[in-house]
Design a protein that fits this description.
15% strand; alpha+beta; 12 helices; 433 residues; two-stranded antiparallel ribbon; rod-shaped; nine-stranded mixed sheet; 11 strands
């Protein structure tokens, strides 16, 4: 009888034993594949979640950086460069300088290309009487807009209320209310006509009684040709380790007869608040990364313990059933040997049967493990579900078949070897009445 037919008859005759062996191999392989699938899915989803959060943090940091840059400019400048001869007590009292310095100082400072100081704004500021308005006292500010560095890339000028075209005037809230002026009107100041370029809303500061004109116009009206009395600047907020002493040293090396005053506490407080938001977002991302890494280690540890236990249990189950089958069927094996079937053929029948069970169990276990892993591995709160085709692993199928074959063959090897080597005369004699 051909070996293949003998194997089929053997399996058909012992259906229960074959099904139990197939079940043991299938469960063991399914557990192995399912655990690997679950770990792989969790790792993919963790990477996807962390990548999404990383992108969110980077977008938040970019937004905060850009917002802080704009907010810093809009709130106020945080550095004030004054002539060294200016008495700071008088400056704090009057809120403007009474000493002057050459306008070329701002160009010299811009040419130095300092990283720690940006957006230089030269101003000429004095408190004057407005003769055309019944002696109203105002603060007249002349400005030419911020001075870019020579190597700065050309871009659209920043118009944050500091750029005033020649021949125009910007009015504070109280002045606009007193004059009932609107944009486009003409007002007269110190014998010259100026077109109203813009009117500021109420700010609750000295700006409400201030008027801004072009620096050249202010120098002409105040008889201060090529002179200014202050340079406003922005200290770099994103430069680590840059303190006021460093900035003062750098500016002092370029403009030795000046002094630097730091101001703008509200702006600094806002910057620190924005920085804390960014730091908290980074810390939360790092904490989540560590938490997910710890969870992955726990899952891998559990899988490393569970899979070998089930594989060993399945092998032991197969061996016990094989020993039981051999004891119950000793007479059959003896009869086969007595009919001339060689021991090698009996052993081949057992091993071939194990191979058939192993191959079928490996395929079933792979499919079942993939299905269970895909079901239990997908997190319910996952933003996106990973498609099943992208989860298929040909290498896992080969691993499943190899594991199943090893389990089936090793489980029946010793019982089959004992059955093949048993003397048929002894077996028949033991079975005789």
């Amino acid at each position: 009888m051909p070996l293949s037919r003998l194997i089929l008859k053997e399996i058909a005759f012992r259906k229960t034993a074959a099904l139990l062996a197939l079940l043991a191999v299938t469960v063991a392989v399914a557990t192995l594949v399912g655990s690997m699938m679950t770990l792989d899915l969790h790792q993919r989803q963790d990477e996807q979640v962390l990548a999404d959060h990383q992108a969110q943090v980077e977008a938040l940091m970019a937004e905060l950086k850009d917002e802080m840059r704009k907010a810093t400019l809009k709130l106020s400048y945080n550095l004030l460069i004054l002539p060294s001869s200016q008495n700071l007590r008088d400056w704090y009292t009057d809120d403007y300088a009474t000493q002057y310095m050459p306008e070329q100082y701002v160009d010299r400072l811009a040419a130095a290309n300092l990283i720690t100081v940006q957006h230089l704004l030269p101003t000429l500021q004095e408190r004057i009487a407005w003769p055309e308005q019944k002696g109203r006292s105002i603060i007249l500010i002349g400005t030419r807009g911020y001075v870019p560095y020579p190597d700065q890339k050309p871009k659209k000028p920043l118009d944050l209320g500091h750029i005033v075209p020649a021949g125009t005037i910007v009015l504070g809230y109280q002045l606009q209310q007193a004059l009932s002026a609107v944009e486009g009107d003409t007002v007269r100041l110190l014998g010259r006509d100026f077109r109203v370029h813009r009117c500021h809303p109420e700010r609750g500061t000295k700006d409400d009684i201030s008027a801004w004109i072009a620096l050249d116009d202010a120098q002409e009206l105040l008889d201060r040709p090529d002179q200014i009395n202050a340079i406003l600047a922005l200290k770099c907020m994103s430069c680590p380790g840059v303190g006021l002493a460093t900035v003062r040293g750098e500016i002092g090396a370029i403009l030795p007869d000046t002094q630097v005053v730091e101001m703008g506490a509200p702006m600094l407080a806002r910057y620190e608040a924005r920085s804390r938001v960014g730091d908290e977002a980074k810390a939360a991302l790092q904490q989540q990364r560590e938490h997910r890494a710890a969870l992955q280690v726990q899952r891998e540890t559990l899988a490393a313990l569970l899979s070998p236990v089930l594989l060993i249990t399945a092998a032991a189950w197969l061996a016990l059933w094989a020993f039981r089958d051999m004891r119950l069927r000793r007479a059959e094996y003896g009869l086969l040997r007595a009919l001339g079937v060689r021991a090698r053929r009996v052993l081949a029948m057992f091993l071939a049967k194990a191979v058939v069970v192993g191959l079928l169990g490996g395929i079933l276990g792979y499919g079942l493990g993939m299905a269970l892993g895909a079901h239990f591995g997908q997190a319910p709160d996952a933003a996106t579900t990973i498609a099943m085709p992208s989860l298929l692993r040909p290498a896992w199928l080969l691993l499943s078949l190899g594991t199943a074959l090893a389990l089936a063959v090793l489980g029946v090897w010793i019982p089959a070897l004992l059955a093949a080597r048993t003397d048929p005369a002894t077996i028949l004699r033991e079975g005789a009445p």
